[in-house]
Design goal:
Helix 2 runs parallel beside helix 3, helix 3 packs across helix 4 and helix 13 crosses helix 14. It contains 19 helices and 13 strands. The chain has a 7-stranded parallel sheet, sandwiched between helices. The protein has a 6-stranded parallel sheet with strand order 8-13-12-9-11-10, sandwiched between helices. The chain binds adenosine monophosphate.
Amino acid sequence: MKFSDLGLSEDVLRAVTDAGYDTPTPIQSQAIPYVLMNRDLLGCAQTGTGKTASFTLPMIEILAHGRTRARMPRSLILEPTRELAAQVSEQFEVYGKHHKLSKALLIGGVSFAEQNTALDRGVDVLIATPGRLLDHAERGKVLLRDVKILVIDEADRMLDMGFMPDVEKIVSLLPQMRQTLFFSATMPPEIRRLSSKFLSNPKEVSVSPPATAAETISQALIRVSAKDKRKTLRDLIRAESVQNALIFCNRKRDVGVLHRSLQRHGFKAGALHGDMDQYSRTETLDKFKAGGFNILVCSDVAARGLDIPSMSHVFNFDVPTHADDYIHRIGRTGRAGKQGRAITLATSEDKRYLESIAKLIGYPIPKIEGFQAGESDTSPKADEKPVESRPQARRRSNNRRDKPSASKAAAPSQNRNRKAETRKAEPSVIAERDDIGNSVPFGQDEHVPAFLLRKP
Ligand code: AMP
């Protein structure tokens, strides 16, 4: 099957060729002809299968004729995250380069004024996250009764993130007579129920069974003790000849801890998590894509939608607690037919999460036996300090609270020496656990004098 067999016009075909694609992916060859026939579509496909082009290409075709009106978009694409929305917008740029379609991106973290200006000019394609779109709709800044094509992308993710009530509200503002394209990586019963509510006599296309990992990804599991995790990760990065990698942590605060740890060890690393503002997220991603650094430590905010075509590795520094997230995380590598490697570090406490991943993907993640953390790694040693037990940490913390003025009493030169000692020896102990067992970012306690940090 060739792109030219799908019913696309010369202009769109040229843009596809310019993008460097010669053969449609299975979801594209199955979906595009039906979308061009104005049929509703229920697509079961993960990211990485080329599903975005399976709706953007025929949409460009359909929207090529017709006029826009101020504040009345002609089509609407709903995405669960800002990153995904931004990515879809980029794909419209790439594939729509020979067309004059106008688009607007309504996502959180960007000023309303800018978005209002775009809406006022009239848009052919509106790409939005549900919350921000509703904000605009409630202020009367956007009217949805002219929408002819609706795309609900990553529906299972929308459901997980609690966005479905918003999506239902948005759909109620749309005309009944419209074409609806509904995509989901998995098809649990609730998603089926919702799809039958939104779609009318849809054509169903499915490119891989729900929740399977792409065959282009070689997966591996390494058993490790909690205290050896960072060192093992560093050794793996060195041993695996990583070109570029995403490293997933379960908690946002651990993203910061690991990021700084990797930087201290000389790796070119950046960090991305949901608490960063949109500007910093975009800036970080752009820098990563441009090769400014090759390791991105991230939370699950990057697990869906992040599209970097040749990502060589994904590391799960923590085993995800939701099996679905495992699929999405590792799906950042092995994309568009390329080979990728996904390595998961697991401690003895992760047993039940590994079991639910095995249940979902249909097999246990293959184990790498006998991987030894290398000896070459010398600095900074602080990372290898064992994690304190809770009683130890509590005693230390009490000590710290009891003796603050003692630091000031110490002779300055003595204090300086002690400080230097402390920085080398102690911070990662503190970084891993505070006195109630939570992790605390590096650096937070670096200015506490050494003798206050020493164990009693
Ligand atoms: P998606 O599943 O839409 O996130 O797309 C995954 C990746 O595949 C993106 O990097 C696309 O640019 C790329 N892609 C889409 N269609 C094709 C194609 N026909 N051939 C090769 N790569 C493609």
